[in-house]
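SAMPLE LOG
Freezer: B-3
Tube label: C17
Construct: single chain, 338 aa
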Amino acid sequence: MKMGKMAIEADRRWGDWHWQWRNRITTPEALATLAAVPKATLKKWQAVARHYPLSVTPYFLSLASLKDPLDPIIRQFVPDIRELHVATGKPDPLDEEGHMPVLGLIQRYPDRCLILATTLCAVYCRHCNRKRRWAKPEAVNVAPYFSSIVGYIKETPKIREVILSGGDPLVLPDEVLADMLRQLRAIKHVEVIRIGTRMPVVMPMRITEKLVRLLRGFRPLWVNTQFNHPREITPWSALACDRLVSAGIPVSNQSVLLKGINDDFSTMQALLTGLERISVRPYYLFQCDPVSGTEHFHVAVTRGKEIMKRIWASTSGLCLPRYVVDRPDTPGKWPLDG
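STRUCTURE (predicted):
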């Protein structure tokens, strides 16, 4: 009877992003109950979660097949014991911490910078290149040091583009986000603002009409998101992207090439054509960064090139992303599709 009432309540509030946020699954025990996994599996999840937390929204969980440990959605958020088996890789392979002139701001390129607005995400993606920051409470709330960030940008006129990232900046309340955007837009040499968010994919209810009206007031503003599998393209995510695009906010996609998730031609083609169908530009296909404990997601570059060669030969040019790798020793994204 109790479960029945919970199900009815969840159904009624499914489209409320606050409900989705409050009801995230954040413990291995809760996830194990839903997935009915053996105790041995739970113990492995618990061991990983002590280092790298777990979080998944009810919505994103609903896209997964809980009975299949190799499901491409499951593998993106379920702790994997291989995350603790570090053979290669680094916690910060792009040396972001070494390019942080003030707390919370990364500047790897002369004309743009990235603000770590929060460490929180609706879903913690196991391949994330900032897993090192998940457990840093001082970086959860940007407010105490945002004035220093704004001051640095004001004093650096070469910066023409500012990227709000994290974590996911759209976990912040509308009023906090609006205040940050107002301060950035007031800087004369900041021409463009970008928001890096996975909300259209993992909690599309967050893209409310109110939020879109807010963002529209700060154009030119771009949204970059991350769809990794065609099953993530749903009526909910399509609506979220349509709201943004209809408000004059371009949406681009930055997929990560992930072993067992999208490293085959048919899956990648379905993803890219599906993005075109919902007016999302396939922007980059990233080689997975060599982050500690993500080796099980890595795909050989030769495999990536083979997939993209077939995509180029058979798919509309509007569907083609640049296949790139991000490296600390290059001035930009290094192309792998040449």
